[in-house]
Amino acid sequence: MNGMTERPRRLRKNENLRSMVRETRVSADSLVYPFFVMEGENIKEEIPTMPGQFRYSIDRLPELFDALKASGVFRVLIFGIPGYKDEEGSSAWAEDGIVQRALKFLKEKYPEFYLITDVCMCEYTSHGHCGILCEHDVDNDKTLKVLARTALSHVKAGADMVAPSDMMDGRIAAIREILDENGYVNTPIMSYSVKYASSFYGPFRDAAGSAPSFGDRKSYQMDFHNVREALKEAALDEMEGADILMVKPGMAYLDILVKVKEMTDKPVALYSVSGEYSMIKAAAMAGYIDEMKVVGESAVCMFRAGADIIITYYAMEIADLIKQGRIG
Ligand code: PBG
Questions:
Q1: Given Cys at both, which of 176, 182, 253, 271 links 241, Cβ 3.0 to 4.6 Å?
Q2: What is the pLDDT of residues 302-316, one digit of tens each?
Q3: Could you list the residue range(s) of the whole structural domain that residue 185 is in?
């Protein structure tokens, strides 16, 4: 007798026991894979700052979608890279725009997938900002109109859900209104509610050619020193009718996720962004870490913090880890 009544190690004895008492369960059903579709034909080009991730022309998308299907990842987030950019980003809402055509193609060829579209202007504007400029800043209310128009064009082309990532004030209400007016009352909105002005998006901007040509995004995306402001953004989006709230980036922002989860009864998504992918990939390529172990652990940690949905470029690998019983 040594007086110890509690011995936590008793429940860590072997894998059989550990997996019985596990607190966090993970599922491929909660994973969303983001990808880039671009104008052109027969293109599958690797993104230099995101090894293992590609930009696809529509005709090459079957390679990606067959792979997703094989891994059991059936939810995607679509980003478009247009052939043409202008001041107002008009190819974002064009009926024959890149996202709209990709949606039509995928709805017909891969009806078993759930298609979510990113709604933003930065890939479509010549200046790379997320909306319509007035002098050297983005004009909030003018931008609402083009965002709403873009969201509607996505839904008309077959999007199952829209995800505005621009961070304008009032955009959820503007999008909800235009969807409802056009009879799409049941199309959900996943709001990038808490989106910080983050350098972790660097590789994405390289991938999508969407870096701002001057200045930065700090007048619309959030200051990463702030927490209470995140809760305000989340509350506003809830009031405006968002169905799912997102926190972005992921790993370095799990404290924010925990707080948002506490204040809402909506599902909460976490976006593990391009820079997070590229850091793990680069460390793995240098031989510094075991890629799949780090990917699996990171995914579990995001779920453990309370994410209901994880958006990640590693979705297929995580699904495979779950299938192999290495996490879960
Ligand atoms: C568009 C958008 C960005 C990301 C998602 N939507 C880039 C940005 O805000 O600059 C970043 C995603 C990633 O880094 O993986 N506004």
A1: 176
A2: 999 999 999 999 999
A3: 24-324
